[in-house]
Design goal:
The complex is a heterodimer of chains A (376) and B (544). Chain A is mainly alpha-helical. Chain A has 15 helices and 4 strands. Chain A has one domain: ABC transporter involved in vitamin B12 uptake, BtuC. In chain A, a hairpin with a 2-residue loop joins strand 2 and strand 3. Chain B has 544 residues and is of the alpha+beta class. Chain B folds into 3 domains: 101 residues, no CATH class; 87 residues; 295 residues, no CATH class. In chain B, 69% of the residues lie in helices and 6% in strands. In chain B, the strands form 2 sheets. In chain B, strands 4-3-2-1-5 form a 5-stranded antiparallel sheet. Chain B has a two-stranded antiparallel sheet with strand order 6-7. In chain B, helix 10 runs antiparallel to helix 17, helix 11 packs across helix 18 and helix 14 runs antiparallel to helix 17. The longest helix of chain B is centred in the middle third of the chain and has 50 residues. The chains are: A mainly alpha (376), B alpha+beta (544). The interface between A and B is large, with 42 and 41 residues. Chain A: It comes from Thiocapsa imhoffii. Chain A: Keywords: Cell membrane, Membrane, Transmembrane, Transmembrane helix.
Chain lengths: 376, 544
């Protein structure tokens, strides 16, 4: 069975998927069936929060795929996430129809406000859900493809590539802040009403989005797992560890990089598309360089090159963020900053590394008691 | 005996005293007679006869009294009244139906009066002309260049022959260049209104290439009414010439703004050129070191509020030391464990940048703080009427160059610089030659951080100082260093200035934000073409 092959040596992944399945079953029940007031009741707010974490987790998996297995530290994945989000946001804007403040049948409010008379060409087609989803995948994909094609062909690597991806995000942020771009400028896209005819404020819609996020995360995880365990994945690891050697052996390094980088960007786009209907807004702040770096730290904390570690890191850090910004808003940046420093200094393999270290330690200790010590 | 004055010296002193007294008496009597005629003329001003009034104006104009100009200006403007009760001259401004009175001579408030209590001093057209010339002559002769300049600006293009004569007289002895320019311009503009064709042509000739807006307006006015084809032709040519000169000056101004922006970029990036370029450390907290420098300026100014003019000279070394020590602290506690792992360094220093930002927010304020500009930083250097360079930008441009060359000297001419380059090229070899690489690393990083702090002092004079200011510069700084070529200080200088000028050149037609985006996109594409920047390192160091 394919699933078995993918997860054979992936204890962490098995555990993560099992927990994900459990959460995906329990949360809707606890939200819909258990009545409010019962201590077991999960509020819709929490459901949405969990859904948001899951989309972040998918984004982190996408980053881990390129950083952990390909050695590319992309500081531009928030941009792909944001582009996917904007594509979905445009669909949701079109769904508002004439229910906006100005009541224009076609144009979103901000365009009426800017005195535009007709829909710009790049807004055409976004009234169809399938088109928006396609664009949420294609636009980040094409951008990553073009950027990656140029960068990998001329062998821009390491820190240079990181800074270039950061510049890309920064340029996109500046561009989306401009009102003339036609994406709502500073305010972004918001005030969404419904998706596929379902009211976005409805509990069942929220549960639906949550389940969709969980399902997509599972599928995305398996897809990444598929790449990692395939021959392509092994070449990718070879490139990460010794790029020049892999090239001399005869592998087309830039093709491998381009394929995985583009796939990762598409995954980030999907995560963005799932994120927007749950949080109800998308604005240029999503492109801020801070976001891109922050999500790298999720992966670093969870454990690089494990995939499931990315999920753990994303959920943990974001839970911490939600908690800290609520309880001690002053302390959050201190905590995040300290995390960056401490994890890179003392926890190079992240939380997943801690697990595997503990397991190895356990396994090595046990046989030692029974048999003679084997020198390494 | 020290107390006794010898006799002959006593005689000398007493005769000197007598002389002084005599001199003083003559001075007083001379002033007295002037005052008398001035006062008499004042009384004559309220005489109903225009002839008497004209004579009085002449006396006042010739009196040399410092109050004369203001008085005549008030008369010409129709604000000079005489109070019936005591025949005193008053300045009048209407207030709620009544008049508010001020003394015409010393300007003191005299309270309100009804319309019946005062009488306006009437003037006729002849008096107006007479007044205009008298005022022109009086103000043009003022010892204060600012007053002369204002006078010259007010009578710009006045075709009255008497005014022209006054201008010609003044022009012969005028020493202030700006006033001279205005006077010449005034004569040329007056020429334009002359009925004689050759005089008009002379005026056009003089105006050609002038950068004063009045010159272009004068030519436009002439062209709207002129019929003589020869004059029209000359005027057209002169106007084209003016346009060309103006656009030339505009280009110079754009260049200056570009260089100014470039100098800011160079300042922000130059510390990074050391930490990133020479040491290979990705320091994402670089922007926050700049911020620390700016906040040091703020704190220095808080400590010496009465010495703002000198605060920057204290702030520059202070910022260097504070930011440098912070840099050494960062290097010793974090970065030193991460050499050879650039991506991890990037993440760790980013964490430090977050901590520093929050530290400033918590300890000082989350809002921007007000850093004052010393008085010598404000104002601008007027090159010509169409081109003015603001001092703050000019000084910062010079300052950036100074910092750059100082760093160049440190790296190329000092023992520390030699060690820094040795460690950067081959750490193991340098160590085996006895270089204490750990100490060199700390000092190099401290140097880069200190320079960032100094940059912060300069930037505090141009932009807002707040907890987020560092983030605005970090990406630009990396762009500059990468564009210039890592490990090359000259590359950083050229790249910074080039990007600044390119940005400003694009701004007029693209807008500020789009220009910035285009520059970013350009650099992204440029790095694809030349991954090692404008001036790549060659040889062994390049393999690093």
């Amino acid at each position: 069975m394919v699933l078995g092959r993918l997860l054979r040596d992936d204890r962490g992944g098995q555990a993560m998927l099992a927990v994900l399945l459990l959460v995906a079953v329990l949360v809707p029940i606890l939200n819909l069936v258990v009545p409010e007031g019962n201590p077991w009741h999960v509020s819709t707010y929490t459901v949405t929060l969990l859904g948001k974490y899951l989309t972040y987790a998918l984004l982190a998996v996408a980053v881990d795929l390129v950083w952990g297995y390909l050695g590319i530290l992309s500081l531009g994945h928030a941009a792909f996430f944001g582009l996917g989000g904007y594509a979905m946001g445009m669909y949701l804007m079109r769904q508002i129809g004439d229910r906006g403040v100005y009541g224009h049948p076609v144009l979103p409010d901000f365009m009426v406000f800017l005195n535009w008379t007709e829909l710009p060409w790049f807004w055409q087609g976004f009234d169809m859900f399938w088109f928006a989803v396609l664009m949420a995948i294609l636009v980040p994909g094409v951008l990553a493809f073009v950027f990656g094609y140029l960068a990998f062909r001329s062998r821009v690597t390491g820190v240079y590539l990181s800074i270039m991806t950061q510049a890309l995000t920064y340029a996109l942020m500046l561009a989306f802040f401009r009102n003339e771009m036609g994406f709502g400028g500073n305010n972004g896209l918001t005030d969404f009403k419904d998706i596929l005819g379902f009211d976005l404020t409805n509990d069942t819609t929220r549960i639906g989005l949550f389940l969709a996020s969980a399902l997509t995360l599972a599928l995305g995880y398996l897809a990444c797992r598929f790449i990692v365990t395939s021959r392509l994945g092994r070449v990718a690891v070879a490139i990460r560890d010794a790029e020049a050697r892999t090239r001399f052996i005869g592998y087309r390094v830039d093709h491998v990089k381009l394929a995985i980088f583009t796939f990762s960007a598409m995954l980030a786009g999907i995560a963005g598309a799932l994120y927007v209907p749950q949080v109800g807004i998308i604005n240029p702040g999503e492109f801020s360089p801070l976001n891109s770096i922050e999500l790298v730290i999720w992966v670093a904390i969870g454990g690089r090159a494990t995939l499931y570690g990315a999920v753990i890191g994303a959920v943990l850090v974001n839970y911490g963020k939600t908690y800290f910004t609520g309880a001690f808003p002053e302390a959050w940046l201190f905590a995040l900053g300290a995390l960056f420093v401490l994890v890179t200094l003392f926890l190079p393999k992240g939380i997943a590394g801690l697990f595997s270290q503990a397991v190895t330690w356990w396994r090595v200790r046990r046989p030692r008691e029974r048999t003679a010590r084997v020198t390494p | 005996m020290p107390t006794r004055i010898p006799l002959h010296r006593g005689i000398w002193i007493s005769s000197l005293l007598v002389l002084l007294c005599l001199f003083a008496v003559t001075r007083v009597s001379a002033e007295g007679s002037e005052t008398v005629s001035f006062e008499a003329a004042l009384i004559d001003l309220s005489d109903p006869s225009f002839a008497v009034k004209q004579a009085a104006v002449d006396v006042i104009a010739a009196s040399g009294d410092p109050r004369a100009a203001a008085l005549l200006q008030a008369l010409a403007a129709g604000q000079l009244y005489v109070r019936d009760a005591d025949r005193a001259l008053v300045l009048v401004s209407p207030s709620a139906g009544d008049y508010r009175l001020r003394d015409a001579l010393d300007g003191s408030e005299l309270g309100e009066a009804s319309r019946r209590e005062v009488k306006k001093i009437a003037i006729n057209n002849r008096m107006r002309t007479q007044l205009r010339t008298a005022i022109a002559a009086l103000t043009l002769a003022s010892p204060d260049p600012a007053v002369r300049l204002r006078a010259a600006q007010q009578m710009l293009g006045d075709p009255n022959p008497l005014v022209i004569q006054a201008i010609r007289d003044q022009l012969e002895e005028e020493e202030n260049r700006q006033v001279r320019d205005y006077l010449t311009l005034s004569l040329a503009l007056a020429d334009l209104q002359d009925p004689a064709t050759e005089i008009r042509l002379r005026g056009i000739d003089r105006l050609s290439g002038s950068l004063y807006p009045a010159a272009r307006n004068g030519l436009n006015r002439l062209l709207s009414a002129e019929t003589d084809p020869e004059v029209r032709d000359a005027a057209e040519r002169a106007r084209t010439h003016i346009e060309r000169m103006r656009s030339l000056n505009e280009a110079a101004e754009t260049l200056f703004f570009g260089l100014s922006l470039g100098s800011v970029l160079v300042l922000a990036a130059i510390g990074l050129a050391i930490t990133f370029g020479v040491m290979g450390v990705i320091n994402m907290a670089h922007g926050e070191l700049i911020m620390i420098g700016a906040y040091t300026t703020y704190l220095v100014q808080q400590a010496m509020p009465h010495w703002i003019d000198y605060s920057l000279f204290v702030a520059i070394p202070a910022a260097f030391i504070v930011a440098g020590l912070m840099g050494i602290l960062i290097e010793r506690t974090v970065i030193r464990f991460l050499y050879g792992r650039p991506l991890e360094t990037l993440l760790a220093t980013f964490g430090i940048s977050l901590i520093l930002q929050q530290l400033v927010r918590t300890t000082i304020s989350a809002q921007n703080v007000a850093v004052q500009n010393p008085s010598w930083m404000s104002g601008s250097l007027q090159i010509n009427p169409a081109l003015a360079l603001t001092y703050s930008r000019l000084y910062i441009l010079i300052f950036a160059l100074l910092v750059f060359f100082a760093l160049l000297v440190i790296l190329k001419r000092t023992a520390l610089g030699l060690q820094v380059r040795a460690v950067a090229q081959n750490r193991a070899m340098a160590r085996s030659m006895g270089v204490r690489s750990g100490r060199v690393d700390a000092l190099t990083f401290g140097l880069g951080a200190g320079v960032a702090g100094v940059a912060g002092v300069a930037l505090s004079q141009l932009t807002n100082v707040g907890p987020n200011m560092g983030q605005a510069y970090i990406i630009d700084s990396f762009m500059v260093v990468v564009f210039g070529g890592v490990g090359n200080l000259w590359g950083t200088l050229v790249a910074g200035l080039t990007l600044g000028v390119a940005n400003k050149l694009m701004e007029p037609w693209a807008g500020a934000v789009l220009a910035k985006i285009l520059v970013l996109v350009f650099i992204i594409l440029f790095i694809q073409k030349r991954p090692r920047g404008l001036f790549p390192q060659r040889g062994r160091a390049a393999d690093g």
